[in-house]
Amino acid sequence: MALSGSYFEVMLVGTGAVLAGGFASVSGLDMEVDYEVYTEGGSSYPRFYFNNVKPQHLVLEQGVVTTVDSVSLLMAMVNQGMSIPLGGTITLKDSFGSAQRVWTVVGAHLQKYVGPQLNSNQASVAVSRIELIHNGCF
Predict the structure, then answer these.
(1) In the beta sheet, which residues pair with residue 129?
(2) How far is CA 66 from CA 7, 51, 137, in A?
(3) Pick from 104, 50, 110: which is nearest to 79 by CA?
(4) Per its UniProt record, what InterPro entries does this chain match (predicted)?
(5) pLDDT tens by residue, 18-69
(6) For residues 121 and 78, what is the distance between their CA atoms, to the nearest angstrom?
(7) What confidence score (pLDDT) does residue 123 get?
(8) Rounded to whole angstroms, how far apart are CA atoms 113 and 61?
(9) Cα 11 from Cα 21, distance rounded (Å)
(10) CB of 109 within 8 A of CB of 74?
């Protein structure tokens, strides 16, 4: 169900860094688990053993980051070989600002930032696209 005037409020926090803002589009709120199948001799029922969680790509598009220069801080850290895991919530809000659905994201790391296309004849949003890799959401 698409809500007219709806948006996503993002609040991801890590040690010394905060990524907060409102975005028009969010994708990648997935979780995929890898299992190892093991069958003992003489048994017709396989057993499934947890192997690991497969990283997913969280994409935030067309929004405004409301924290002071948090994207450049995260990018500077990545350029220095450091990456802080971010965790927090993504909330779908309706046109009145009421929360409709909340997802919790854990272990997110900045992977890509695409700034706005600068054009003096058109108004543009502050962030075109932010991509993070994460370990799952619920």
Answers:
(1) 61, 114
(2) 14, 38, 23
(3) 110
(4) Phage_T4_Gp19
(5) 888 899 999 988 888 888 887 777 777 777 787 787 888 999 998 888 776 7
(6) 33
(7) 56
(8) 10
(9) 7
(10) no
Taking only the tens place, the pLDDT of each residue in 68-109 is 677 788 888 888 888 889 999 999 999 898 999 999 998 899
Look at residues 17, 18, 13, 56 and name the one whose alpha carbon lies nearest to residue 34.
56
| DSSP letter for each residue of the chain | -PPTT-EEEEEEEETTEEEEEEEEEEE----EEEEEEE--TT-SS-EEEEEEEEPEEEEEEEEEE-STTHHHHHHHHHHTT----EEEEEEEE-TTS-EEEEEEEEEEEEEEEE-PPP-TTS---SEEEEEEEES-B-
Regarding pTM above 0.85, the answer is no
Residue among 15, 7, 3 nearest 83 (CA): 15
